[in-house]
Amino acid sequence: MDMNINGKSPKANTLDEANQIIKALWDIIQKLNEKLKTNSKNSSLSPSKDRASKNKSNIKRTEDRKKNPKKRGGQPGHKKHERILLPLNKVDHVVICHPHNMCACGGHVIINAEITRRHQQYEFPIIRPIVTEYQIYSGACNQCQLKKSGSLPDGVGAGMLGPRATAMTANLSGTYRISKQNIVNIYRDIFDFNLSVGVVCKAEKTVSRALALPVNQAKSFIRSADQVGVNADETGFKEKGKNIWAWIAVSCFVAVFMIRNNRDKQVAKDLLGKNFTGILCSDRYSAYQWVANENRQICWAHLERDFRKISERAGSSSVIGTDLLLQTNHLFHFWHQFKEGSIDRKILKKKTKPIRVFIEGLLRQGKRSRNNKTSGTCRNILSYGPALWRFLETDAIEPTNNLAERLIRTIAIWRKTSFGTQSKAGSLYMGRIMTVVATCKLQGRNILDYLTCAVKSHIEKSNFPSLLPEISKINNTALAVAA
Asked: For position 65, what pLDDT does the model report?
């Protein structure tokens, strides 16, 4: 029976009609109650959007986990950590501190030959930019009067900022998410250097052009990652106030970001390559369904949220969902033992075989549930078949998509602390700088040094610095293991 909530209250002429009205209203109450209980633990909702309530603390910790009784800060008996003193050859200044040579009793103080205590203090110098002036002369031929003019040396750009200053500007905006106006303020307050917001924009454009080739190389690397695990995810962003999407793909210490208007299959193919033959780890979003199940690993962190959602429903769904959560905990227990080296892959398969059978049986049971949402979710999960268990069979494949989600979280934070980008060029710059920032962090490389090299090579028109790990130039197989 369909209920029109906006119309007049229904009237029952018979007992059957009254029962139908009660059932329809009960269904509405259940749907609203389920929607009210939606949070970051049972859906894709971000933790920041969890509803404030008396039970919000229960969202952050499960029922079987008690609040930590320890107070904040250092705990009694914890291991002491002290800064290691630099050797004298790395110290800039040494100040000798002798005691007063006269004692209060009238005697003389005899100084020991050995140092009693060493104390080192760090201080920053007053930093000023190095200004180089290039004086360009012109002249004319004494015979033909042809005018000649000098030119800037190779490697010197026409802009106000040099390569390192340009790279630092992009590093502040891309790595530390500092606004253009605050970059201007930092340069003025710390470096006593005045520049305009327009110069910051020009620096970002220069860096964006300098990163075009290395980022394209990184994209090609991701698309050719045959038989290597690739983690992919996407999140919302803003361009001129309109909703757009930020995508990420991660593999072998290389992370590629793309900013696109859509969140569809075509963008996923552009990111991964239409002939993708690696193993994709992602959630169950429909844009990835073009990848065969044999080449996929469904994220178990997302499945756990789905199971929790099922467990919070009434009737048989609650029992099925609770059992699914229990078996998922058992599954991760053995996976963590495998990662710690306590068991090998052969034992891992043996231990998890009954768990797999149990979980698939519960999903088939949920598929027959009278609750349409439960049956639909279980039916959809079962359709992925081998994609649920690829991490148990294949080396270098993780059961969750946590790597991509951690890296793309930077975009989510950026979205909440800014107005997004204001142009296509800004979105392109953002995708490129985030690719460099994430990749350099994964590889332990200095971001500022890399950006400086990229800008220099762009100005000099020389070979660009690669974003690919050094090991890839030696042995591609080792990369697959490292991932």
From this structure: 55
